[in-house]
Amino acid sequence: MKSLIDNARSFAATHVADPRNTEAFRALGAGQSPEALFITCSDSRVVPSLITGARPGELFELRTAGNVIPPYPSAGAAEREGHPMSEAATIEYAVCVLGVGSIVVCGHSHCGAVGALVRGEDLSAVPAVRDWLDHSVAPDDVLRSLTPDAEDVAEAVQEHVLAQVARVRAYPCVRERVDAGALTLHAWYYEVHTGAVLVHRPSSGGRPTSGDRPAFGPL
In Å, how far from its chain's centre is CA 12? Predict the structure, then answer.
């Protein structure tokens, strides 16, 4: 923790006070106008700003266990189920208020959440994780029927990413802007051990959906 604290202490002096950065940081006080909403896993090995080279104010981020995007809540569902939908709120804010032009859903190799699902691991020791995955990934989801193909569970993660892209597209605000040509959706796969980023290319010039076979290639 000491190195993190030391860097936090010196951040303003070493970065913000640098004449090359001062004006850019000062402008952040007037608001933000990010180019994209970047949805990915909470995994510490995935650092969106490092991967994309984004500077402060350029990426709006949503990080969840397993980069899971819950279904859009029906009217009153959040109140009935007793939990807020911060994921839905983040997506709506990015699309409706900030007006992002792109949404990236980025899965990654060696994902613990996806690995647990395809291997059928016992998650009783982490009930919050178990309930999150049970709530968000249906029992009949194709992901649960896949056989782990390798330690990095690449095929399963890529299938999962496409399912999450299809799910976010079902959000009313997203669907409306995609149909209007004002928003594009992107499915990415990041290899934590090589740094490679792969992108899904739909089989027919349309939008990525869970019906497409995973066809990820170089970005």
Answer: 28
